[in-house]
Amino acid sequence: MAYTTIDDPSAHFQIALWTGDGSETHAITNDGNSDLQPDLVWIKCRSDADDHILANTSSGATKYLIPNTAGTEQTYAGNVKSFDSDGFTVGDGNQINQDTRTFVGWQWKANGGSTTNVDGTGTAEDTTKAGTYQANTTAGFSIITFSTGVDDLGDHRIQHGLGAVPHFIITKERDGTYEWYTYHHKGTDDNDYLRLNIKDATSDAGARNVFDGSDFTSIYFEMGNNNIVNDSKTYVAYCWTEIQGYSKFGSYTGNANDDGPFVYTGFKPAWLMFKNSDASERWFISDNKRDTFNSVEKHMRAESDYSEYSTTTSIDYLSNGFKIREDDNHMNGDGENIIYMAFAESPFVTSGGVPCTAR
Question: Does the model's pTM come out above 0.90?
Fold first, then answer.
């Protein structure tokens, strides 16, 4: 069996760092082994407190959502101006290019902005919602847009294009103010949800189940019959499924000790996001560009506009996973379920049998 189908993760995921110059056109060029034209760009100011920015090629350049708030989709020509052959171009927006500020941009490749249309099947129970998807089945990532009608009944099936069951999903109303409802397959229950813009633990909120994870398939994911989607609104969803040697969406049990769990991923991480799903704790993001050697100490918070946050010790990125060296509840609460989302810098062993080295 092959160790991985992706020998060069930079063909599908990259991280860029830059210092703002306040200009109306500032090209951000990637430096990975492969050129990457991104379809999803997630930007955060490192040096100052300011909102995150999410932009994608399905919605189009200049449109963005803010993942640390529940606000509607906005349009501003000074944010992400274009998605380029090996990076992206930003404008003069303070959140992404204010002079002397420092920034990070996390980028994923879907299908180059080329979408597949999905015809809706009406408003009867268990219907497929009209919309589009663009999928990168090699890397297990897709961007979906869909719409619902007033008083839609029953569960809502949304085609994702992955060709495999999704393990991690983030959804947001584009023209409404419901939160960033998030699914992780290692949550407490198939119907549990988290909210990316809120610290709360997992919930199923009684009859208001958002996700019906037990009914997910390789064709669609399912959202429940509730007022979150029973409205005449448009939505965006980001879906991922695990790819051996490239991505992992797992969980571990914390021990509240500086000698925390070792978690095997099958690759050397480039990016990690953690959430204690049992408690009201922060969404913590680390990566290999802001910390180039162990220990990894610089974090961003997905649910907050806070600037980059450093700890004295936190995580070790290893050739085949990561080691927790932090006793805080956000990533190591005693006996608590910690979910994580991870993408690779390099597979532990390439398809040709070559092992990667540790830091």
Answer: yes
Q: pLDDT tens for residues 153-166?
A: 667 889 999 999 99
Q: Cα 61 from chain centroid?
A: 19
- Tell whether omega for the bond before 304 is within 30 degrees of 0, i.e. cis: no
Alpha helices in 173-272 (DSSP H): none
Which is higher by pLDDT, 58 or 228? 58
Distance separating the N- and C-terminal Cα atoms of the chain: 26
Q: ∠ CA(175), CA(91), CA(47), 5° rounding? A: 90
For tokens 């070790």, the residue is 316
DSSP SS3 for 168 = strand
Q: Tell me: the pLDDT tens digits for 274-305?
A: 999 999 999 999 999 999 999 999 999 999 99
Query: In terms of Cα–Cα distance, which of 9, 28, 30, 6 is closest to 19?
Result: 28
Please tell me the total number of residues recorded for the chain in this structure: 359
Report the distance separating Cα 252 and Cα 263, nearest Å: 7
Q: Measured between alpha carbons, how far is 110 from 143 in angstroms, rounded to an integer?
A: 7
Q: Provide the strand spans (E) within 91-180.
A: 102-108, 116-118, 127-128, 131-136, 141-147, 156-159, 168-173
